[in-house]
Amino acid sequence: MQRTQVVIIGAGPSGLMLSLLLERQGIDSIVLERQSRPYVEARIRAGLLEWDTVELLEQAGIGPRMRREGLVHDGFELAFGGGHHRIDLKGLAGKSMLVYGQTEIQKDLADERERRPGAVVWEAAEVRLHDFAGDAPRVSYRHAGASHEIRCDFIAGCDGYHGISRASVPRDALREYERVYPFGWLGVLADVPPLSEELVYANHARGFALCSMRSKSRVRYYVQCPLQDTVEQWPDERFFDELAARLPPPHAARMVRGPSIEKSIAPLRSFVTEPMRFGRLFLAGDAAHIVPPTGAKGLNLAAADVRVLTEGLVAHYRERSSGLLAEYSARALSRVWKATRFSWWFTTLMHRFSEDPFEHKLQLAELEYLADSTVACTGVAENYVGLPFTAG
Ligand code: APR
Ligand code: PHB
Description:
single chain; binds P-hydroxybenzoic acid; eight-stranded mixed β-sheet; binds adenosine-5-diphosphoribose; alpha/beta
């Protein structure tokens, strides 16, 4: 029977970040991941970081490549009614964002984590959580045909929306809140130069569009599409035609087309679980909450959970004080709900929900108000760059 201080379920960004941050504080952990490393790294996800997330990733030890290859953005554009308006993040909220793909973050975290052999068990099958309501939690799993069990003080459920951790909690002990949006995002990755220095979020009668990037020679473009659509129905030509149709003509004129190297459709959902702690089990990241990608809050919220959980565990082991751990769920959820609200608001403002022209007129009126009001833009900027952390 193995023993460690914290067993972490899931080697996505939350699990690996937590394991590295704990190690830097002298706290031992073992990460159990169901999939292989190449499988986890092959997932295409977003790539826009709040500065607090950049600093936390640096504390976890993955600064150099991120700083070298990441793109600093001090603002973004809203395109609507044939025109556009820039939100000056640096000027209005005093903070920048960093464009650096989650796939790269996943690679850097796994490289850093694997510098200590045995810290991650890849392809750990049948992970099961035991006795986390009591004082002696255990986690069992199968690996390479053998059964294993680890005794620990705490379990961190960082295993995403479909993970075993939240599913292991008695149904009546948690409350789930959900909003499913009636459309999807068709995303394309292509090695062409971006049509704009900064991100462009477009509201159009034909539906939403987003022009993002991974580097100065690789773009990540999205268009809102019906959930029933398949990628086969969207050959590259149709995708770029539709994107061009939803952008102001000067933006569309600058768009360079190229063959897609990845194309996929993702559903949009807002989901929150309360509470985020059950006895000695703590949920973090997608295991506890999902936001629609519009506000790029998914990874940043996961990092925020990990930051608050690390503070609690360090206080527990270093000062033998359980106060911060006891506050983990409330502190994490206060930020989760604000980011959930912002992501819902931005999704509602920028997407087409129905044929109703009144609805689109309201969206345009709100966007025009934003373009005219520094106060309103400051509110957007504050939420976009990430709200300040509430002290424990
Ligand atoms: N046993 C072990 N590992 C599991 C299990 C299980 N039963 N179920 C899931 N996992 C693993 C998954 O294979 C995955 O690698 O847990 C990991 C969870 O990782 P993510 O889904 O990436 O979740 P998280 O680390 O919280 O990252 C959140 O990812 O989806 C984006 O937008 C989201 O950016 C956010 C970030
Ligand atoms: C991305 O680069 O994939 C991206 C950026 C911003 C978003 C969503 C996705 O809001």
